[in-house]
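Fig. S4 source data, part A: sequence.
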Amino acid sequence: MYPARELSGRFHALVSHYLFEPCFARVGVGHDKGGVESRGKGIRLQHLTPVPRGDSLAQLSQALLHDIEKLRQSKKDRAGKPVAEKIKEEQRYLHSLPPYPFDPSRLLPISINRKSTAIIEGTEYSLPSEWACLEAMAYVGVEEIRIVCQGITVIYEKKKQAGRQIRYVHYLREFAKKPQAVRQLSPELMSELGEPFQRFWNLLEKSHGGINAARIMAKVLRAILDSSLEEVSQAVKDILDADRTGLLGRMDIIDQSAPLTIPVPDELAEYVIEKATAADYDFLLRGGDHE
């Protein structure tokens, strides 16, 4: 008598999802699964020889399923009955599938460090800066990795070799505070943000220089955090479409976080606070009259 098989975690989840009883071949008895191996060999010779090529595993899988379905529609049994009709008859005796397919991804709890990155299977992935020092769940698939935290999902293409995958859009909060960092990493950041921000940055840099351009762009990034990427993108597009070169004077369109007026109590409304200029201080430093 052979001992009971111990199912792996994901295979046990597969069994529970589709409610079937797993049946295994006996240890050391090869002919128990001869039919399965024969069918696999047939598919390999008919559809996978020579070895197919494609951009992704999903593309190859879809092509294989299409070829098998095409063969199924034309194939007949020894009595001349189409195989497709026989399968249709058998489907009446099968249980209905669950409303959603099984996710074969491997579940992996992860800890996000203070730099808002996490290492999964040897590769370091950047994550939104507000996730720093939090716990998250990674769903590791064949071609992609999904990282879920606080109800938000970040998807990465799975890399075959260890390395780093950094998305600078995950650090907009930090860029909004450090214009110099915006200037240093502008090629990567604008590439990720795409249009119209790339064109906007090029115009800013040309008309106002790198330092002032970075300061303005930092305000734009702050506006994205305070509202949304779609709203700010439309505001920037409106500026560019209107061909306005005086962009420094139009930042009120984008910077919605700073109020134009500050409400004060009625008893203070009649007071006027005089504002000094830099020239006033220069005059005083040269020993001018203090009146």
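Fig. S4 source data, part B ends here. The two ends are 106 Å apart (CA to CA).
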